[in-house]
What does this fold into?
Amino acid sequence: MKNFFVFLFIFLAHFFVFSLELKIGYVDEPLPPFAMGTGTTQPNPPGIYIDIINQVAKDLGISVIYKRQPVKRVQLSIEEGLFDAYFSLSYKPERLKLGQYPMKNGTIDGSRRIGAVSYFLYKLEDSPLEWDGKTIKNVDKEIGANLGFSVAEDLRKMGYQVSETKTTGSNLKKLQLGVISAFAGQDVDTDALIKTGKYGKIVKIQIPLSTKHYFIIFSNQFMKDNSAIAEKFWDRLGQIRDKKIEEMSPLYLEEQE
It folds into this structure.
């Protein structure tokens, strides 16, 4: 009889985990190759981050429903528990009100990130603006950044005026028109857009502003009852991430050409 109840417990626990449905939110702007397309729909291929999440969910027997919203709305949705999870965010202590990150011994666990991206400064070719890794010199206007991206607050803490705009393309247009002195952008999508030749003579300062790890966070409401599932999810993500990125990257390079 004891063995029967042990078996029943294991079966029910297995059934609970493997019947779980995750509602995951992310922004409605593209970040190629990590998240593709715009608006509420999800294109095919959807982006490397979605590929990684789908693989983790498959491995754990979890189903996933995705919802795309503007950045401020999706952050409010995760804070209110309307979504179970949200990707992708860099770590800031004040963002713990939105949800919980993978932690180890009380600190953020970078080994269980979903990815990493570097920020660089972009300027017009004839601009005197300089960045030596410590100080931005010859800044006569605001520096552009994407709305809600953490680099905006980083620049403000360094003492610079920042203008936030919704998309990378919009920021590059502002730079092209001389509205901003420089754009602090993620290299992945900014480099790809510049290569299209649509934005004039914009150059990249080769010293990175910063390199940030990005994470999938789980809502505080979800973590109250499902922290063990979240931990399994983060663990598996860390195990497969690099291999999955290597496997899927060629597909997205073809997609961008």
The chain has seven helices and 13 strands. The helical segments are 2-18, 48-60, 71-79, 150-157, 168-176, 187-194, 220-256. The longest strand covers residues 115-124. The CA atoms of residues 135 and 158 lie 8 Å apart.
